Amino acid sequence: MKNKIQKFSKGDFQLIRPDVIFDETNLVLIIGEGEVYRGSFTMRANNEGRIRGLVYSSSFRVHFKDQGFEGNPARVEFTYDGRGLRPGHVEAGKFTVVCTGGEFELAFTAIIEKPYVMTTYGKVQSTDDFRKLAIKDFSEAGRLFRSKEFYEILKYENERTFYLYDNMRKWSLGEQAMEEFMVGIKQKECIFLTLQGEGMLFEDLTESTKGTLTLMKNTWGYMPIHIETVGDFIRVSRPEISTEDFVGNAHEIEYVVRAEKLHGGRNYGALKFVTPYETLTYEVEVLQNQEYDEDHRMPELLLAQIIKEYVGYVAGRVTLEHWVDSAVEKMVALRKLDPLNEVYQLMLGNIYLLGGKTEEAKWILENYNYNRFAIGKDPLTNCYYLYLTAKIRGDVNYEERVLDEVGKTYMRHQDSWWLLYMILNLDNRYKNPYKRLEVLEQQFEYGIHAVMFYLEAYLCYQEKPTLLKKLGTFEIQVLNFATKYRMMTKELALYISNFASQQKKYSDNLFRILERIYKMYEEPMILNTICTLLIKGNKTAKKYFSWYQKAVDSDLKIAQLYEYYMMTIDEDSAHGPLPKSLVLYFMHGNALDYKKAAYLYASLVIHEEQAGDLYLNYREQMVAFTWEQLEKRHITESLRTLYKRFCREDEMTAERMEAMRDICYSYEVRTKVRGMKCVLVIEKDGSVRQRIPYDTKNGAIIYLYDKESRIVWESVEGRHYTDSIPYETKRLFYEPRFVDMCRKYAASTGFWNQEPEKEKPDYEKIQAKGIDSFEDKDVFLVCSRRIREENYTEDDFLSYLAFEMFRRGQYDKVTLTYLAEYYCGAIGDMKRLWKVLKQYGVPSYKVSERIITQMVFSETLYEEEHIFEDYYLSDNVYFRLKQAYLAYVTREYIVYGRSLEKCVFEIIANECDQKEDLPDVCKIALLKYYSDKEYTGELEDVLHQVLREMCEKQLVFPYYMNYKEEWLREVQLYNKVMAAYRCKPGGKVRLYYKMKQKDREELGYRAEAMMPVYENLYVKQFVLYNDESVNYYFQESGNGEMITTDKKTLKTDKERVFAGKYQMLNAMTDMDSDAERSKAMLEFEEEEQMADQIFKIY
């Protein structure tokens, strides 16, 4: 380094600058835990130059065998001390190489290798390696998952990963657990199945048939699959499979449709594939021996329409004439469908009879073929015929005989409602509604549900409502029929309502009857009965709210009405204030559930203006209720309103603040996956302090204090699920005011500080564990204190520590003074240090000297002028370095056109004024810089002297011509013109020119080989008369190419007033008179002789 600076100081720039290349530009150091790594890097030059220089490291753990190096190639050996570092530690640093070829940065990455387990497929030392192993061999991955070695590997993984595995070891380590673990740490996606098609249809199977379907999975991994069959006719050979049975991503399922289990018509079945995450259904349908007749249900439909219209007639909604016409039309259609059906013929006669058309009825019966002794004749049909004839004749004796015949038949067929109907209409005893109802109730025991049966029973109640003395199954069915067909009279409706209010138990059927009655007659009595019945049944579902609301709006006095109003109200859809009567009712206390009580109070708060004095009367109990619910950690939307209104910071106790913090971090979690038993939360420290039972309706409320907390689901089967379960979280209470309140409280008391107390650093701990193990401000304090304690004694690690803190923005005058004294590193780093030193007024000349030294040595100079000025103005300037710097930068200025700050030329001028020894290039640059600028009187003498000196040394350049005329006359440049050229390094230059005098011009160009004035700068001087000019161009050769410049012309500067013999000769050429020219020639000769006598040549 000194040798190079010494040569530069003398203006010798002939040294070959090596073109440096590195074998590697980014080093990766893989270091075992607790080991010292030994490594090296090599650089070489493409040309003949040898590489000399120094190397610095950004890491204090790097030590060099020799910090300096020389050679081509040059090898630098180093060590990296990895002792004390945990596996997984990564340090990205750099080597800074300052050499004769320049300054270079070589990046390195030091990685402390993690422990690993060797498997059949290679190393496994991370979860990523484990995933790759699981893809290749799931069973071997499972064995590793259960081993303690895997537990040790995870200690150096992300803490959330480690704590998840730590807890899963307590739950299960089976294949399903491993699957959940990998999904939870984002190493794979959850497995889902898809079916190729939605189902299969079979038709008319005569024997058992095999079917197949393809089950697809989306990714690799393990999942058990249970196959359920719906329908006895479907059978599978293996009800339990897993994803291990798949070939690739597909598995073919075989099932058998058993023909012996099929019935005629449509057979519905399905295959259900039940996984821990979903249930897929594949439908199987078999159409067996099915012949479809579009009209097969038409008779049933027409008969039902006839009866329904008859009920409408009895209820008074349809006239008898209309019903008869419609019924006859439908019976004609029925007889066309089945002409031989005798019952249809008799029914038509019955319709005519009911409609008062006796003649038509007689005609029908006369055409009926009656033979009571015919073989195969239906006795019920015969009885029906006899019944109709008896009604037509009206003969009492005949009716008694028919009644006797029907009665005998009924004794054999007591379950026949048809026969009973005939008896009821023939026997006068049953004209009494009591008797009639009694026999109907007995018949009901046979399971009779015919419409006409219920109609007969209802007519008894309609005739005499007092017959309704109980509400058994029979009575409920009859009333249900009556309300369904809207036959109920108002008198009977009120009677039923009164009777129902006396019932001790709730009945869904009775409520349905009363609901229909209320739609027919909106009477307060009926509404009262409905609400009373609902309260007896403890009906609190939202669908019943409308009844309680109607009762409250009607101001009905019903016990517990307001409680049930509050229990059934939908808080999300309800708007406006609550009824005033309800608010007054609860003024002196309530036994409502906390959610409903909160809604009551929240309504008062929201509608405070409308509430008026009621709000003030309630305020005290609302405040007490709010604090009570806060301490119980309850949270709803209504409670949120109360907390915001009544919770004040000055009334907060430690217990209340603890509860408020829990509420601020409370979340509601829900999932659509069935079979979940509870929700667990793995906290940031790995513990499980929350195990909340899961309710399908209301979800579960958990507390998530940290974003690192993990939610785990536990199913009823005992399985645990991580991120494979889709779920939703909803923050229940987030108010910045309360969150800030909790933070302030925590900061003042130290509560809830989940972070362990950080270790305080000292110098030895920092040296062992590294800077990043502690807070920057704490490390800086240790560093600054250590410098003072050691009285600014140099120490390698202390220097590293001080500069690393400086790089991170942590410094004071102590550390800056220390760095100014000792730090030496990369040029960029030292320049940043120099700027801060100047700002803080710390002496910086040593840093300036190191910067300039390395810049000159490496020939890497940029934005350094003021740094050199700072160094120059100090009292400790090394003259060789000063000269070398000035020579190098002025050479760059002259030869390569680099721009320089003014301060550099002021320093050169000062050196010239002090008669200091400087290379000529510095003086040439000084003359060039000031050739087109103004300068002071003091500087004028310096420039004049330098100009004379350079001209004496024949170092002449065109820009000299810009100086004063008298200076140019003195150095004999006043009568000259110059042509200049700058060529590439190593090139050769020839000048081609020809003279021209007035109209005479030389025919050819003269060629002249040029010699450089300085390095690659060439100058040619010409002396021209006024009427002369020179045409010229330059030609450069080198590196196999030829460059020719454009042609240019040089002339004398006619504006300059020249003195001397050449000017006298120029004047003679311009004279027109011979006498005047002769006189001038005589004067010229006299001056020549006088000069020879006065000026002697030594």
UniProtKB/TrEMBL annotation:
A Pfam family this chain is assigned to: DUF5717
Residue ranges occupied by any DUF5717 domain in the UniProt entry: 1-775, 795-1095
Protein name stated in the entry: DUF5717 domain-containing protein
Organism listed in the record: Dorea longicatena
